[in-house]
UniProtKB/TrEMBL annotation, chain A:
Domain RNA polymerase sigma factor 70 region 4 type: 102-153
Pfam families: Sigma70_r2, Sigma70_r4_2
Keyword DNA-binding: yes
Keywords on record: DNA-binding, Sigma factor, Transcription, Transcription regulation
Protein family membership: Belongs to the sigma-70 factor family. ECF subfamily.
Protein name: SigE family RNA polymerase sigma factor
UniProtKB/TrEMBL annotation, chain B:
Domain of life: Bacteria
Transmembrane as UniProt keyword: yes
Chain intervals with Low complexity compositional bias: 88-105
Lineage of origin: Bacteria, Bacillati, Actinomycetota, Actinomycetes, Catenulisporales
Keywords assigned by UniProt, alphabetized: Membrane, Transmembrane, Transmembrane helix
Protein name: Serine/threonine protein kinase
Membrane-traversing stretches: 40-64
Native species: Catenulispora pinistramenti
Compositional bias per record (Polar residues), positions renumbered to this chain: 106-117
Region of interest: Disordered: 70-117
Length: 167, 268
């Protein structure tokens, strides 16, 4: 029974870890932090696995845990950590590393709470309502955070970088 | 920036290759089991009292947890800072001795801090709220809302919305041997002001970091007592004038605030 449950959990994690890590990386801007974040979120999933595995939209649920873990972790550690704007230490393809560096540096400058909203809205493609539900905040806050996050991105990136992205 | 540009930003920034993490399921399971054991231990430790090994893998500061509003508290102005603040600050240059001695006496937590009170305590919240309100900069004291910590057991924190700035204040366990001086000042000393002061009858070190103008922060280290205090302003960029050094130290080194936070946090 226990072995079966653990096997199900392992299969669940293996099937989703790439996507979770990629999202975590966009939130943290650092692979090591992304790894810690993903592991912490999955540990929470494991603790409640008996219940969670029967949740109807389990992927959305687990992503919600990831985002809330990120927010909690940030709030707990925000003044002790330096957000990294370093390029990933794995080979990237399809985009020049300097452009990627610029983008990650820009994202690192966006306030974490705003960044979480932007990642949910524009990377996870969630609606305002879904984003609010995932982060446990009001829809109005999602809208204002989106607006401010976009402002921050715009001010950091500037027109030149935006042209690069558009091209 | 157009909204579709944001999608492009993420698409471009997202790594196409994700590093392989060895046995992530196993590591998550191990961590989950450890948490489950801790939770069981805490639950069995008694009503609302949690035994925590401070020297363990604790997070030093900022224990706000997920936070949840407890009341729409009191929208009345905070009033001017108390004239009875017994705080001495020495910007930029460490001093060897405090220049004032506080006359108020507050019961201090036991040195080991082996028993920490649950933070989910409305009465304690109100005590902290009252104290912090008295210490807040009067210019921003018109709209306060308290969020109380709800998860962490190693510290006590409160957050206040002041206009467009969220001010966070917390006290928690701090072990200089374990944590060193875990602030941004170590990484970016050019944007840091340091000093010493007396707080709760102890000499403390404080570090004010302003390298990120949208989120100034004040860390206060009581090395002797094993207590860390943290005052944050976040996000200050939208504020007309984010709290500065004087305001942050005024709030963070306020005796009444410290006493309220310690009383809320610790139990005997």
């Amino acid at each position: 029974m226990r072995e079966a449950r653990e096997r199900e959990f392992d299969e669940f994690v293996l099937a989703r870890q790439q996507r979770l890590l990629r999202t975590a990386y966009l939130l943290c801007g650092d692979w090591h932090l992304a790894e810690d974040l993903t592991q912490n979120a999955l540990a929470k999933v494991y603790v409640g696995w008996n219940r969670i595995q029967h949740v109807e939209q389990i992927d959305a649920y687990v992503h919600r845990i990831l985002f809330r873990t990120y927010i909690d972790t940030y709030r707990r550690r925000r003044k002790r950590e330096i957000l990294s704007a370093a390029v990933p230490d794995v080979a990237g393809t399809g985009i020049a590393s300097d452009v990627r560096l610029t983008l990650m540096a820009a994202l690192a400058r966006v306030t974490p709470r705003y960044r979480a909203v932007l990642v949910l809205r524009y990377w996870e493609d969630r609606s305002v309502g879904e984003t609010a539900e995932a982060l446990g905040i009001a829809e109005g806050s999602v809208k204002s955070h989106t607006h401010r996050g976009l402002q921050q991105l715009r001010s950091v990136l500037g027109d030149q970088a935006l042209d690069l992205i558009r091209s | 920036m157009e909204e579709q540009d944001v999608g492009r930003v993420f698409a471009a920034a997202a790594p196409e290759t994700v590093p392989v993490i060895g046995d992530l399921p196993g590591r998550a399971r191990a961590l989950g089991k450890r948490r489950r054991r801790q939770r069981a231990f805490m639950t069995g430790a008694g009503a609302g009292v949690t035994a925590v090994a401070v020297a363990g893998a604790v997070v030093a500061l900022g224990g706000f947890g997920s936070g949840k509003p407890v009341s729409a508290t009191d929208a009345s102005p905070a009033g001017p800072p108390s004239s009875s603040w017994r705080v001495t600050t020495t910007p930029a240059t460490p001093s060897t001795a405090p220049s004032t001695t506080p006359s108020t006496t507050h019961s201090m937590p036991k040195s080991s801090y082996s028993f920490l009170q649950s933070t989910d305590n409305p009465v304690a919240d109100e005590a902290v709220l009252t104290a912090v309100k008295a210490a807040l900069p009067s210019k921003d004291g018109a709209s306060l809302r308290l969020n109380r910590a709800s998860e962490d057991k190693n510290g006590y924190g409160a957050e206040f919305t002041m206009g467009s700035t969220v001010l966070g204040i917390s006290a928690g366990s701090y072990n200089p041997n374990v944590h060193g001086t875990p602030s941004q000042c170590a990484a970016d000393p050019s944007h840091c002001t340091k000093g010493t002061a007396t707080l709760q009858e102890r000499q403390v070190r404080w570090e004010y970091y302003y390298g990120d103008p949208s989120a100034p922060t004040l860390n206060i280290y009581d090395d002797q007592g094993g207590i860390g205090y943290l005052v944050t302003a976040y996000p200050g960029a939208q504020s007309a004038q984010p709290p500065g050094l004087a305001e942050m130290t005024g709030v963070g080194l306020n005796e009444q605030v410290a006493a309220a936070e310690l009383a809320a946090w610790t139990t005997r």
